[in-house]
Every structure is written in C-alpha cells, then in structure tokens.
Amino acid sequence: MKDKIKIFGGRYGLGSKEFKPRDVKAIVENMMRGTLRHNFTVGITDDVTGLSLATDSAFRIEPGTGNPRAALLYGIGSDGTVGAVKNIVKIVGDNSDLYPQSYAVYDSKKSGGLTASHLRFWDKPIQAQYLVESADFISVSNFMIAQRFDVFGALSPGGTVMINTHLAPDVAFANLPKEVQEHLIRNRAKVYFLDAGAAAHELGLGNRINTFIMLNFFNLTKIIDPKIAARDAKSAIEKTYKKKGGDVVAANWAAVDRAHEFLTEYKLPGAPSGFAPDWTPAMTADAPAAIAGTLGEIAAMRGNDLPVSAFKNFGEFPVGTSKYEKRNIADRVAAVDLNACIQCGKCSMLCPHAAIRMNALSKKQASLSGINFVPMKTPELGNDLAFNLSISAADCTGCQVCVKNCPVKALKMIPAQGADQTAFDAAAKLPPMPRDKLNLNIPKHIELCEHLFEFPGACAGCGETPYIKLVTQLFGDRMIVANATGCSSIYGGNLPTTPYTVNAAGRGPAWSNSLFEDNAEYGLGMRLALNQKQHALKNLLFELQNTEGLLKDTDIEKLFEEKDIEKQRLNVEKIKSEIRNQKSEIAANAASLVDALVDKSLWIIGGDGWAYDIGFGGLDHILHSGQNVNILVLDTEGYSNTGGQQSKATPFGASMKFSVGGKDSQKKDLGLIAMMTGCYVAQIAMGSNYQQTLNALLEAESYDGPSLVIAYAPCINHGLRIGMGRSIEQMKNAVDAGYWHTFRFDPRNADEGKNPLTIDSKAPTAGYNDFIMGEVRYSSLALAFPDRAKELFAAAEKEAAEKYEMLIKQQQMYEK
Questions:
Q1: 40-41 and 70-76 strand pairing
Q2: Rounded CA gap, 528 and 387, in Å?
Q3: pLDDT of residue 212
Q4: What span, in angstroms and rounded, lies between the C-alpha atoms of 552 and 535?
Q5: 233 vs 85, 101, 260, 492, 648, CA distance in Å?
Q6: What backbone phi and psi angles, to 5 degrees, belong to 191?
Q7: pLDDT of residue 774
Q8: How far is residue 171 CA from its own chain's centroid?
Q9: For helices 226-241 and 210-221, what crossing angle results, to 10°?
Q10: Residue 418 confidence (pLDDT)
Q11: Which of 183, 173, 221 is nearest to 68 (CA)?
C-alpha cells in the first residue's frame, strides 16, 4: 500500500503572491496527470527554472448571494478611502445579516500612493482568503487612478462605477483611456461621477472626501437602507472626530446629509469618444528601457505579473528613478509668477517633495533655452545672469507649503490640468551653477545646487524631508547614509522608485537600511570600514613610493590631511594616472582603494523612535566612540511610521497611541545627554531659523568626531489645525512658544576659549498653551479629559520653561 502512495511537493506564496482557487486547480490537475511535475511553483511565472504550473486565469470561485457581493474601492493614500471602508464594513455588519470581509492593499508610499480596498458581503461565513477578482461596485477617489491604472477590469457585467472628479461628466468620460471606455460600454456599466472635492470645499472639510465616498456607496448599492447607513455614519463620525471639535463633527454630518447632491448619473454613449486618450504611462518616455520594463510595471501595479527573468539583477535596482514616475496625484498644484518672485529660494528650500527648482544661466544661455527667464537678483553671483524657477506639477502633492511661505505671494494654487510640466522638464536638463561659484553659507545659493534627493513618496507637507534634501545638497556627492527603519526608510528607499539620485558627474548618496534597533552600530561599522580603507590605502601608497619608485613628488602624509574635497579629487585623478599602467599587485590594490582618499560624509539618519527609544543603546555607544559620524534625528515626537504611538520623545500631555489619556512623563532630553559626552550637538527647526539650521549642519559635518543634530519635524499625526501646508510655520510657532529650543553646542569653541554653547532661540514670545491647543494630539485631551489636560499641560509648560532656564545656566557656566 505504501508503495502505491505518490508524494510530490511544490511551493506557493513566493514573493508574497496569493494562493488562489486557480492555483489549487492547477495542482490537482498536475497530480492527476500521468507525468507528475515535482518541485513545482504556483503564483509566479518562473521562466528561469520552468517549474511553474500553468493556471486558468478565467477560473474563479465567488460563492454567496446578495447585492453587491463584492466591491473594490480605490483611493490615494491619506485621502480617507480606507477609513471610509472600515466604517462601511462596521455599518453593514451591525445592520444586516450579511457577513462582511475587508482587505486593503497599499503600495509602499507614505501617502499619495494607490490603495485598493477589497470588500465582500455574503449571506454565509466567508472562506475566501484571496482578493476580489469580480466586483459589482468599483469606486475611484481620484481621476488620475482611472487614467493610469487598470482598475475597472474586475467589473461584473451591469456593475456600478463611481468616479470622483471635478470635471464635467461628459468631459471626464471622454478623458478616460479608450480601453476603459470600451470596457464600460461593453459591460453595460452604470456610471456615476462624484465631485467630492467641490463638496468638501463647500462644507469646510479641506481635502477630506471619505464621507462622500462612504455615503454614496450606500446610496448606489442599497446593500442596506441608506437612511440607516446615514444614521450609523453620523454616530461613527462623532466617535472619530469628537476630539477634533464640534465644528469638524458638524461639517461631516452635513456631508452625510448632502452626499447625494454631488453625485451625477452618466448615460453611456454607444461608442468611445473620438479623441479618447491612451493610458497615462507609469514612467516617463525618457525612462531607460531597463527601468521602464521592470520598475515601470511595478509602478503601474502590474508587478505581480512580472516573470522571474525580469529580476535578473538579483534584486539590485538603480538610484535616481523617482524622476521617471510622475504620479499626478494633486488636483491643484503650485504655480509661480516669475516677475513677482524675489528669488529668495524659500519655496525650493522648504518644498517637502523637491518639486521646485531654481536655475541660473548666463543671459545668452537663457535666451537659447526656450524657457522663460528673468534677470537674476543676486549681484554677488554676477550681473550677466538670468533666473528661472520651475515647478513640477506632476510631482507636486498640493500641500501648499511653498504658497504659505512665499514672502511676496508670488506663488498660487491652480488646477493641475492648466499647469505646464514641459517648463520643469526642460529646466531639469539645464546645467547647474558650478559649486565653486556658490557660497554654501548662504541659503539661496544652496538652492542653485543640484538636488540629490527628489520626489520622495512622503506625506504631503512632511516636516522631515526638507532636512534630508538640504543635507544631500550640501554633502550628497560624497555622502553615505545608514538609515533606521521608519518613515525616512520608507520614502527614502522603497520600490519601485528611489529619491536618492546622482549629479552630472555620477556622484550621489550611497544609501542603506539595516534594521530599526541597530542603525547606530550599522553606521559606525561603515565609518570603521572607511577608516580601514584609508589606512590600507596609505600603506599601499608608501609601498609604491618606497619599492616601485612611484609618487616620488607626493607627500603622502600631507595628502591624507587635505580637507578641500575638490583638491582631494584632483589628487585621486593624479594618483590614478600614475599607477594606471602598473602591473604589480600593490598597484592594483591601491587602484581599487584610491577613491577612499576623498573623505566620505557619513550620516546616520532616523526618527525619534529609533534615537530616543529602540536604538538608544547603540546611539549612546556611538556618542562615546570618538568616531567621525554625523547623526540626524528627525524628531516627530512619536512613532510616525506605525501610526502615532508615543515614544520617549513624546512630551507631557500629548494624547497618542499608548498614551490616549495624555503622556504623564516628560520628554527625554537627548540633546543634554549628548552634550555630556562632549560631542557636537544641535537642536534645529528649519521654519524658525533656516540660517541656524544651515549653520548647524555645516558645523556638525565639519566636526571631527560624533555630531548629533536633532530636527523638529511636524507630522500628520500631530493633527495640525492650521494644516500640514503650514508645517514649516508650525516649526516657528513651536520655537516662539518655548515648546522647542534651538541651540548649538560646539566643543571646538571651548578649545579656543569661547563659549561652546550658543542658544539660538529667544525667550518665549507666544503662549505655550495656545501653541499646543493648535494640535489635535493635545486639544483632544482637553476635550476628553479637561481636568487631566489642565494638570498635564501646566506640567509641560513648566518643564519647557525649566529646560530653557537650564540652557541659560549652562551657557553662563561655560562663561566662567
């Protein structure tokens, strides 16, 4: 009997692929074949080993009854669609005998990426552990989604489609890809257009459109009585938004009552429009074939269909690919009036998404560029220069940081459809201003440097990314980054594209992420490796000089003392030319290491969850190591990447996950701890004082030893009442209120008989309580637990005042 049992095996779930009924069917058919295939794979197309089993793509199992049985709701990360789906599931589950199932699929962007919520409603327990492939209802929260992704392919015949757009219905349908128009007509789809943007604006909801999507889901599907759904929706809204204030609750209730008013049914034509466009490509036309063919397919959300052979480079991907992915996620984007612009560079400095560029060319070059230039207003750079500032509408997230911070109102928001992308694309190809003509101590000069961190997938208005962009502009052509897991590792090194890029000479940041807890040690290991390379190179150069008669006129010791980077690069080329034709092993080894002569700028980057909490032990070790490393802590005062949990950087009274009742312990004073180790320490807030931020970064990098820069970074988890478009302004508000103190501690000053501690922030000029009540993480506590809030806020204000007083006393102590 045992001899008659056939045992065979295979693999599923490779690359996190789903295990679908069609895969089971293929396995059973394989088992029943006369020629049994062993070690098979399902779920992927393995064209390298040839072990994949063929599957029947048309085979599906969707049991159950009800109308609709399944739905797909597509959104843009942070637009509220996923939250709307959560409420839909709860409302249906509480008010019907149907069993609901929900699963959300995201890409790896922090926000602004595609989200797909898969919903099922059946009259018996759901056993389907795979995504929806046939849907009766499909909604799209952003018109760009319908133009770029094949989101309607799963629509059942006669199904319902809801598309959110500000365009008139006939114009919107005509601008859908031809394949989409044909598919909807062929399937006799019921099509509705929703103008949730106009509705949200009218009702004072900003960009939040989730309530309109949720209510119109019920209005169109009738899966339960829409009146019952509206009643429960109001209850859910009150529970969700009560902490944000009664005005927010009232506005959302109005959205419930009026959601149907902004919905328009569209009668399908008999044929597609005569000027129906093609699909909006996931990558630009100038993307190299190797990038467009693999990363482009991933960006188009077709990565699951790629065969194994597409990854022939074993998971290695090029840098600088974010410039090829034009996401077009904003309905309204920034535009500039060059004639009104004073060329201060603030918009380019502060743009969280590096979507603004400044160019300076000679007037003759400018006249030949085909782009609009105006006279340059920076006489120290010369009188024969012309200036251009351009904005990438396709990369703008609509956050309004630039508009809110322009001192002369030269920027405004316009409809994305009217924006000119060609000017930015042309400007991006222009030569940069030579760095040797720029003074990197002057902020607006820096914005004429090449951007080596561009178009990250961070949340709109992110407070972290401007710091990283600035560091890369200063040091990126010789920069190595050890990045802790967190927001900065997600928007900094995700697939399909990466924002770190290279300059015209092919130089740019080398970036890597290990884990969460060990980032400090990871970066220290990099520094020790760089040191060892320089030590080995020095020995090899001495051997070449002493045994092979090379480099006779070179003072090798002095060579390694050179601090001027451009001179050091010339030295590298000189050494390369002298040893290029040498055949000895010593020469070959020296040639492999000679680039180490140019000292690398090593930066260890992470958030407060890493630096204050999980990675603090390693950070403390580095601060005492004496090694030349630079540490940039992006302090959002909580675990931003995982949804806003408290960290040891969270101040007194903040209501966050794990401290909903208000954190009752003070914030760890990381700056003070670091000062006690004798390393360089700075606390900065770019929106408060850009020059102080710049000075701190330049001083930190020049310090021969550990340096720690702690940067205040507003986050969406703070719940800024003034909106993330004013995140930079919130940095200034924090300093003015005495909530955040800016200072620089430079031990080199003590060696020169000067005071090592410079306190850059002044005594508070604004109310502490007024500041914190402008953030939901504090105001929600005042609403929920007013007495406790009063007690904790008083303790927080007292602690902030004591910290500033202690800084003053420390400064006075160093004077003695």
A1: unpaired
A2: 44
A3: 95
A4: 20
A5: 12, 18, 14, 37, 36
A6: -110, 130
A7: 96
A8: 32
A9: 160
A10: 81
A11: 221
User: What is the total residue count of the chain?
Assistant: 816
Closest listed residue to residue 262, CA positions, set 216, 224, 229: 216
**Edge-to-edge, what's the strand order for the sheet holding 479-483?**
510-513, 479-483, 601-607, 630-635, 707-712, 680-684, 743-745, 757-759
Q: CB–CB of 350/163 below 8 Å?
A: no
* Residues 6 or more apart in contact with residue 111 via CB below 8 angstroms: 76, 77, 78, 457, 458, 459, 460, 716
Q: How far apart are CA 361 and CA 365, in angstroms?
A: 6
Residues 6+ apart with CB under 8 A from 135: 68, 70, 71, 72, 154, 155, 156, 159
Bridge partners of residue 105, in order along the sequence:
116
User: Tokens 């009766």 appear where?
Assistant: 136
Q: How many CB atoms neighbour CB 95 within 10 A?
A: 15
H/E stretch holding 804 reads: helix 786-815
**Bridge partners of 362?**
385
Q: Which amino acid type is present at position 60?
A: R
Torsion angles phi and psi, residue 343, rounded to 5: 60, 35
- The separation between CA 770 and the C-alpha centre of its own chain, rounded to angstroms, equals 30
Task: Report how far residue 201's alpha carbon sits from residue 219's, in angstroms, rounded to the nearest whole number.
Answer: 21
| Residue carrying the six token digits 């140019």 | 598
Rounded Cα–Cα distance for residues 496 and 114 (Å): 13
CA angle 583, 588, 589 (to 5 degrees): 150
Neighbouring C-alpha atoms within 13 Å toward the C-beta of 39 = 4
How far is 734 from 729, CA to CA, in rounded Å? 9
Q: What is the mean pLDDT of each run of 10 residues along the chain (816 residues)?
A: 74 88 91 80 91 89 63 91 92 93 86 90 88 94 94 95 95 96 96 95 86 96 94 88 81 94 96 90 88 89 89 77 92 95 96 96 92 92 94 95 97 91 94 93 94 94 97 97 95 89 94 91 97 96 90 90 93 92 92 95 97 96 97 96 92 92 94 96 97 97 98 95 94 98 96 94 96 95 94 95 95 87
* HEC sequence for 22-84: HHHHHHHHHHHCCCCCCCEECCCCCCCCCCECCCCCCCCCCCCCCCCCEEEEEEECCCCHHHH
Torsions phi, psi for 187 (to 5 deg): -90, 5
Exposure on the CB side of residue 802, measured as CA atoms within 13 A: 9
Q: Is 417 left (phi over 0), alpha (psi -120 to 50) or beta?
A: alpha
Coil, helix or strand at residue 758: strand
Closest by CA position to 578, among listed 602, 545, 609: 545
Structure tokens at 22: 């069609």
Say if residues 640 and 607 touch (Cβ distance below 8 Å): yes
Alpha-carbon dihedral sign for residues 571, 573, 574, 580: positive
Listed in sequence order, the DSSP H helices in 377-459 are: 401-405, 421-427, 443-446
Residue with tokens 């692929």: 17
